[in-house]
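Input record, target 12 of the design panel.
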């Protein structure tokens, strides 16, 4: 989804960024690419790369959350756009998007280091990412703004909501790498998390 959004933002083809709802922002698309590469690195046993990408995602999410909740301008929306000369309009990412980046990055960090006893923590973080992403998706489907927009902060885009739901499922499924019984625990809780 991140790669398709980047292609769409650069070419203007309207692949996935056509909607009456908020569309994904440029830095958010890059962040989703980082998370996707981190999950692929973990799945292909490249744990060091997965760790590094998890740290980058975690740091990006931390900056987004800090910028939103502390009401300071950390320039997060200009992290990547200043590197290019494209006439893109950077915008502030939502706090729920930042929280998903923070939790998914943390899950990649713990999963790639395979610390003893952290498998359930990784699953829990994956389930929280699923809950936030699916809550935003259901908010768009039911026309319930609180699902995708917290208070007066910017809303989470539909593309980000879908991507984080998929990333959360990927974290839960890949955590079976750590302890085989974890998947059973994680899959049992997915309907409960989505329901909430």
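The sequence produced for target 12 reads:
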């Amino acid at each position: 989804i991140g790669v398709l959004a980047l292609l769409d933002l650069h070419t203007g083809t309207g692949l996935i960024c056509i909607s009456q709802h908020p569309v994904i922002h440029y830095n958010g698309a890059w962040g989703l690419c980082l998370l996707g590469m981190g999950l692929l690195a973990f799945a292909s046993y490249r744990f060091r790369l997965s760790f590094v990408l998890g740290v980058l995602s975690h740091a990006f999410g931390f900056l987004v959350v800090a910028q939103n909740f502390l009401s300071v301008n950390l320039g997060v929306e200009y992290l990547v756009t200043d590197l290019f000369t494209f006439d893109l309009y950077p915008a502030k990412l939502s706090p729920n998007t930042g929280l998903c980046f923070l939790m998914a990055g943390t899950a990649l960090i713990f999963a790639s280091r395979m610390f003893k006893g952290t498998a359930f923590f990784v699953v829990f973080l994956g389930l929280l990412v699923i809950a936030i992403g699916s809550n935003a998706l259901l908010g768009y489907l039911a026309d319930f703004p609180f699902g995708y927009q917290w208070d007066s902060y910017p809303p989470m885009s539909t593309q980000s909501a879908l991507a984080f739901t998929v990333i959360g499922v990927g974290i839960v499924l890949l955590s079976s790498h750590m302890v085989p019984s974890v998947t059973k625990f994680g899959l049992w809780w997915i309907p409960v998390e989505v329901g909430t």
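Residues 131 and 194 are 5 Å apart (CA to CA).
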